[in-house]
């Protein structure tokens, strides 16, 4: 069986659950497509990329993004509706293509008392649980897999499991798969719509150039925008996220949609670990795409820095001089919310 692992940094740890699972499940073809500090929207983006490129699809997807969705929700950059729409779109993808799906639901290190550290844990877990129940998706939960009260001792740091606990998770995932994870029924439900607009489709002005970039976790054509450059991206709905590479020259940029304009930075504290970082940057504010969305590197520093900021996860200050800063962008995600009736059905499912 061909199995694709889509998950966050717990799936990328050297002796994490994904590495140990691949060893246990050696008779299967296992491909690990992890990327740290991104949530379910990135997992959906990876699936839509497979679809656009007519790539060979797996028999089964292990989807491990609940922990990162919790972190993004805690940071105030992720809406509940976006999580629900992304999960439904993932399920619709699997239903269209007859692919099996297993939700692997981890969570951050709890408080010393063992209680979840924030309300975001319960909110995101409820969304995953309701989605899994409503559409009969196989799911595994960290607290159930531990087999005892979850404590900080089960974690090596704030968000990553110890090698021992990761091994327990890997064995349980392998066992669940051996029991059989059926492909989703070919029923596609009405949900939000997502579109990925890549760098080759952007209209540009000023100092901009396309560059091919490759990394262990992501590769593609990126638009490099220097100071004074602008780019225009056409889509429907709202701007949800931008796929960027952050390096030593990454800097502050602006996003404009209609009368709404905000500044944002491409630098991340995660670059202390990965210097050239591929990362999906979520947009916290609403940027409705009633026309084109402009993403630019303004040359006027005082005007740019006077703009209201758009919040991000683990944002860091730029280290390059202002005039030398650039932006490397592979594409943007546009999102149209699910219709009201579909959202009401999901609300009822959560309350049951």
TrEMBL record:
Domain of life: Bacteria
InterPro entries attached to this UniProt entry: SGNH_hydro_sf (IPR036514)
Annotated GO MF terms: hydrolase activity, acting on ester bonds
The protein's name: Uncharacterized protein
Lineage: Bacteria, Pseudomonadati, Pseudomonadota, Alphaproteobacteria, Hyphomicrobiales
């Amino acid at each position: 069986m061909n199995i694709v692992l889509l998950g966050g940094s717990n799936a990328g740890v050297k002796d994490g659950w994904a590495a140990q699972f691949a060893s246990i499940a050696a008779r299967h073809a296992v491909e690990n497509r992890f990327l740290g500090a991104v949530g379910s929207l990135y997992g959906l983006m990876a699936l839509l990329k497979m679809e656009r490129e007519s790539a060979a699809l797996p028999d089964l997807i292990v989807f491990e993004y609940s922990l990162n969705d919790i972190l993004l929700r805690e940071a105030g950059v992720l809406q509940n509706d976006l999580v629900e729409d992304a999960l439904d779109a993932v399920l619709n993808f699997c239903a269209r293509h007859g692919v099996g799906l297993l939700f692997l639901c981890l969570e951050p290190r709890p408080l010393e008392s063992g209680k979840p550290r924030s309300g975001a844990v319960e909110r995101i877990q409820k969304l995953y649980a309701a989605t899994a129940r409503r559409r009969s998706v196989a799911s595994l939960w960290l607290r159930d897999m531990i087999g005892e009260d979850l404590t900080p001792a089960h974690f090596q740091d704030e968000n990553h499991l110890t090698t021992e606990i990761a091994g327990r998770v890997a064995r349980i995932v392998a066992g669940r798969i051996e029991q059989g994870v059926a492909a989703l029924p070919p029923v596609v439900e009405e949900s939000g719509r997502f579109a990925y607009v890549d760098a080759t489709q952007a209209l540009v002005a000023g100092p901009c150039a396309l560059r091919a970039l490759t990394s262990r976790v992501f590769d593609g054509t990126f638009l490099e925008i220097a100071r004074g450059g602008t780019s225009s991206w056409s889509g429907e709905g709202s701007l949800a996220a931008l796929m960027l590479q952050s390096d030593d020259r990454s800097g502050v940029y602006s996003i404009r949609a209609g009368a709404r304009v905000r500044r944002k930075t491409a630098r991340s504290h995660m670059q202390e670990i990965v210097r050239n970082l591929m990362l999906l940057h979520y947009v916290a504010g609403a940027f409705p795409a009633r026309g084109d969305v402009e993403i630019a590197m303004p040359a006027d520093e005082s005007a740019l820095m006077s703009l209201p900021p758009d919040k991000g996860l683990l944002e860091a200050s730029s280290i390059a001089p202002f005039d030398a800063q650039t932006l490397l962008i592979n594409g943007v995600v546009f999102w149209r919310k699910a219709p009201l009736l579909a959202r009401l059905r999901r609300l009822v499912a959560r309350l049951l």
